[in-house]
Amino acid sequence: MSTVHLGMPGPPAPRGVGHLRGTETFPVAAGRALGDTQLRRNIANATATIRDKRLRVVAELPDWEQLRDAGRALKAQTMARLPELLVQLEEQVVTRGGNVHWARDAVEANAIVTRLVQATGADEVVKVKSMATQEIGLNEALAQAGIAAWETDLAELIVQLGHDAPSHILVPAIHRNRAEIREIFLREMPDVDPALTDEPRAVAMAARRHLRAKFLSARVAISGANFGVAETGTLGVVESEGNGRMCLTLPQTLITVMGIEKLVPTWQDLEVFLQLLPRSSTGERMNPYTSTWSGVTPGDGPQELHLVLLDNGRTRVLADEHGREALHCIRCSACLNVCPVYERTGGHAYGSVYPGPIGAVLSPQLTGVEDNASLPYASTLCGACYDACPVKIDIPSMLVHLRNEQTEEQRTSSRIPTAEALGMAAASWAMKDPQRYRAAQRTSRLGRLLARGGDGEQRRITRLPGLLSGWTTSRDLPVPPARTFRDWWLAERGGDT
Amino acid sequence: MITCLADTLYPDVGRATVTLLERLGHEVVFPRGQTCCGQMHVNTGYQRDALPLVRHSVAVFGGADVVVAPSGSCVGSVRHQHAAVARRFGDHGLAREAEEVASRTYELSELLVDVLGVSDVGAYYPHRVTYHPTCHSLRVLQVGDKPLRLLREVRGLELVELPAAEACCGFGGTFAVKNSATSTAMLADKMHNVLSSQAEVCTAGDSSCLMHIGGGLSRLRAGVQAVHLAEILASTQQAGRMADPQQARA
Fold first, then answer.
1. What is the pLDDT of residues B37-71, one digit of tens each?
2. ipTM of this model?
3. How far apart (Å, rounded) are the C-alpha atoms in residues A172 and A240?
4. Which of A94, A441, A473, B200 shows its CA 20 to 30 Å from the CA of B98?
5. A471 closest CB neighbour out of B11, B136, B177
6. B19 and B111 share a domain?
7. Residue A483 predicted with pLDDT over 80
8. Of A225, A228, A224, A184, whose CA–CA distance to A203 is shortest?
9. What is the pTM of this model?
10. Where exactly are the structural domains of chain A?
């Protein structure tokens, strides 16, 4: 294991491991998703339902805006003191009988967890729903070592049995409806009742029977953490089903993989986040199960506790003053549910386990923007995500920042500028001088030659060449008028100012 | 501030803004040096190329008492991006000047309702109209119901509600080209809602979003027009709808 230097930014998340990079650009993957009628209906229905629930429960709290401000301030404070708080967390976990491991990246984290499981002699583990372990591709790494990892969150189970990938942070099987889930269970669940219907209760009961056997036999559990409290060394998981609670209490050994940004300074700070998170994520006033554990309690719960602290590009994000706010994210997924792009494309189009607006700012920062170059552009900058974020992450401004990073990266890595870069430079050159700007306007009037229509029909431009053809696939453009506003002003008002 | 888009493609929006403000008794000045605020460059990732445009814009508008633009997104750029671009390149003097200009820059409905204190501008527009709150006027400037208050006072105008009004139309500047398919999917839903409202006219405070919605409606020959808020507010019983007589001949 290598040394982790606190306060020094580490490398980006390594290639070839984990799930932070897609194999296609966003526009290509989105184009395919847009053609999937079933997918679009499933996601539109689900996001609309959660959106409405969230608005209802958020409106109940008169101090919601103050809570958001508090959440934002706490996260900013935590990031400013991250090194010392992490050391404090480590001391507290160790004092209470746990073990702490530092993982610089996905490769190290997977190796640590694999080694820990092997040391117990187990060949299977049960898993609590966790984004961090999806991010590093832990299940695949364990499988390579001959260890079976069983997902126990219902939606993660559906994804795992369907040989599929999660498409939402909170509701990983949001792209599936109950008919599809029934089919997956009938096909993949060994002991399933062949008469299974698609009634939600019947499907849930089938999963329950399937999982109960795993809970009772597994000796090792692996979890993520929603929070780690530096003051007390407490780790916490927030969930709806109770399956996480089973994993966190029944097995002998518990291994928790936590991103280093999940820290809060004190126990009292949870007061803020445990109000913000359930209302923003599931639209509930309170989540059904909140489990917290501080080290090991003799005779009660797991007797061996390991905490793996994961960097995997996070210290690199922390070093960027314009981008570090992405680390404030509490993984509620409110931004996904309100995003008009996510609502239409679903999560797989983003290529990363972190989809939607937060994914579009987090994934490129974790990997380096060159590996997720199309994600910062997967947004209209409509701002709905910023409005919904419980810790007020200014996602639109960060997208704009990352777009700038992307073009700068391209400019420095290639000597040949892109057509877009040339166009932008030319536009800037023309528009910083009023005379050149007027000349460019006159040129744009050549667009009148492209106009179609006639015989009484309104004239319009229906086809444009090159980069601009993306516009005219579905939209007309007006014909540039015979005289611009400034021509009119000059003609009518003359030469003042 | 006419905005480069309205200047080049929608001069009637600029003419309407001038006519409206003069009718209300104000002097309108058009600094001829103005070009583009640089928003497209910033939002597409070219802040280096945006910097000279920010510098130029700040110099051109530095002397005005009040700056008004018929665009939520251009005013949003002036207010929320100009100083930040200057700071990124270490020009703190420019950043301070940009903030100073931004504090006197208003979107049209803000100027009318907040600064001038009017909601009835004496307009007449006998059509069924629905209003699309553009994302940047709604969420960046937070103009709230100011445009609706202005529209409700227009004689002859029947205002009908736009379902899912606050959803983005899918324009997003270069998003419409880079992510054309997703943009079109969003536009399809917006057009569906406009058509289901039974309106003859869809209005908004941004020529860019109207170019998008109007471009889609035009492609479908939907028979619904996209008309800028300024053009509605400038229309009167006497003058009718604004149009440049020279355009008709062209």
1. 999 999 999 999 999 999 999 999 999 999 999 99
2. 0.95
3. 14
4. A441
5. B177
6. yes
7. yes
8. A184
9. 0.95
10. 57-315, 424-493
Query: Is B8 close to A484, i.e. CB distance below 8 A?
Result: yes
Give the 3-state secondary structure of residue A331. Answer: coil
- H runs (alpha helix) in B10-120: 11-23, 39-44, 47-61, 72-80, 82-88, 92-102, 108-110
Find out whether A28 and A349 touch, Cβ atoms under 8 Å: no
Task: Please name the residues between 163 and 192 in chain B that touch chain A, using a CB distance below 8 Å.
Answer: 166-168, 170-187
Domain of residue B93, residue span: 4-115
Paired with A223 in beta bridges are A256
Number of structural domains, chain B? Answer: 2
Give domain A57-315's CATH number out of 3.40.50.10420, 3.10.300.10, 3.40.980.20, 1.10.10.10.
3.40.50.10420
**Which residues lie closer than 8 Å to A257 by C-beta, 6 or more apart?**
A103, A109, A113, A130, A132, A133, A136, A138, A222, A223, A224, A225, A308, A310
Whole-angstrom distance, CA of residue B152 vs CA of residue A402: 41
d(CA A67, CA A72): 9
Residues from chain A that touch B56, judged by Cβ atoms under 8 A, are 431-432
DSSP string, A37-55: HHHHHHHHHHHHHHHHHHH
A481 vs B135: CA distance, rounded Å: 27
CB atoms A407 and B136 under 8 Å: no
